[in-house]
Each structure stands twice: as structure tokens, then as C-alpha cells.
Design a protein that fits this description.
Number of helices: 10
Strand order of the largest sheet: 2-1-3
Largest sheet: 3 strands, mixed
Distance between the termini: 109 Å
Strand content: 5-15%
Radius of gyration: 30 Å
Length: about 220
């Protein structure tokens, strides 16, 4: 090396950076899939089954979607039953509004009239083994629970074996019945009927449990 030259040596250390994520992203709109399935429900194109309601209305649907959501529909369409042969399903115990809501849930997982139809939707969900819909209905009943609705909630809890509904209805009565009777009984006699119904139902349940214990 010459006297007027300066020699510099250095090392470059390259390390692999684990977990690096590129922050750039394309924004994807939420709910597109649900919207498209909702459109499928509202468009009769490619439908292959007709549901006939208690009020004689005809609703078009898709077997594969119904079967994917409900084991009852799956069994119905998977065997040589009349519904599978004729591509018609008669639902004689629910009207158009309730069945439309059930279909809306089956296609999109969403409901627009849950609070208004929670008791009927609980019944149809139980019939077609739509467990998530059942639970949505029970939660709606619990959220709307009052001294006026406690008797109905108790009966539904007993019918569909939801202990949480029965217990919540009884607790509602215990907490509010005495004060309500003092203040409003003369104005709303129906609530007194509700209280009486719960007491009667509780007595019947106790008698049934006593009979089981004796056997």
C-alpha cells in the first residue's frame, strides 16, 4: 500500500428477519359473502325445491343449502321421501313470515325479525335442528324478559329444555312480582294470570320430580 493511501476494511452482517409482514393491504369489504347468499335466496334462479307454508304461500329454495344447514332437511332430501321426489316441502305449522326468517338465517346467518318472532323461530329451529338459531332465540327471550313475558318464557324453557329460561323467568317473578302486585295489579290483570301460570307449572314440575324419586 502506498503511503498516501488509506485502507478501510469492514464486514456486512446480514440477518434474516423473521416475522416480517408487509403492511400494504387491499381493503376487502366485510359481509360480501352473506350479501351474495342473501341475493341467492331472493332470486328463484337455480332453485330446486318449493316450500309450502301454513298460509299456502310458496317459497323457492335450494336443497343443498337447506341440507347443509339442517340434518332434518338433509335426511329428507337424501332418501326417497315424497319431498325429495316431488321437490316440495309442506310446512303446515308455520306461516310465511316465520319460514322466510328461517330461510334468511339458513342462507346468511342473520335475522331481521328475531325479537318479534323469537318464540315461533325457537319452535321452527327446534323442529329442523338449527342449534345456533335456537340459541339466538333463547338469548332474545332472555334479553326481552319482563314480568309480562316471564310465564311464556318459562313454558318455552320447559318445552325445549332450556333451564336458563325457566330459572330466569322464576327469578324475574321473585324479584318483581310483589312490588308489581302492590302497584299495578288493577291495571294489568294479565300479569296476574302469568304469575299464576308459573306457579302452576312449578307445582306440576315438582310433582313430576317427586314421582320420579319414588320410582
Amino acid at each position: 500500500m502506498k503511503e498516501d493511501e488509506l485502507k478501510i476494511e469492514f464486514e456486512i452482517l446480514i440477518e434474516e428477519i423473521h416475522g416480517f409482514k408487509n403492511p400494504a393491504r387491499i381493503k376487502i369489504k366485510d359481509g360480501k359473502l352473506l350479501k351474495e347468499f342473501g341475493n341467492i335466496l331472493n332470486d328463484s334462479k337455480f332453485t330446486d325445491v318449493t316450500i309450502i307454508t301454513a298460509d299456502k304461500k310458496e317459497l323457492r329454495a335450494h336443497k343443498n343449502i337447506l341440507a347443509a344447514r339442517s340434518k332434518v332437511f338433509e335426511a329428507m332430501f337424501d332418501h326417497e321421501l315424497e319431498e325429495s321426489k316431488l321437490n316440495q316441502v309442506y310446512i303446515n305449522d308455520f306461516n310465511e313470515e316465520v319460514i322466510r326468517q328461517m330461510l334468511q338465517y339458513s342462507y346468511t346467518g342473520k335475522l331481521t325479525k328475531l325479537d318479534d318472532l323469537n318464540a315461533d323461530l325457537l319452535a321452527i329451529a327446534h323442529k329442523y335442528e338449527l342449534q345456533e338459531l335456537e340459541e339466538m332465540c333463547v338469548n332474545s327471550l332472555l334479553e326481552k324478559l319482563s314480568i309480562e313475558t316471564a310465564a311464556e318464557a318459562f313454558k318455552l324453557g320447559d318445552l325445549y329444555t332450556y333451564q336458563i329460561l325457566k330459572e330466569s323467568a322464576v327469578n324475574m317473578m321473585k324479584q318483581h312480582a310483589a312490588s308489581w302486585i302492590r302497584e299495578d295489579a288493577s291495571n294489568e290483570p294479565q300479569v296476574l294470570v302469568n304469575i299464576s301460570e308459573i306457579i302452576t307449572n312449578l307445582q306440576k314440575l315438582k310433582e313430576a320430580e317427586d314421582c320420579k324419586d319414588e320410582q
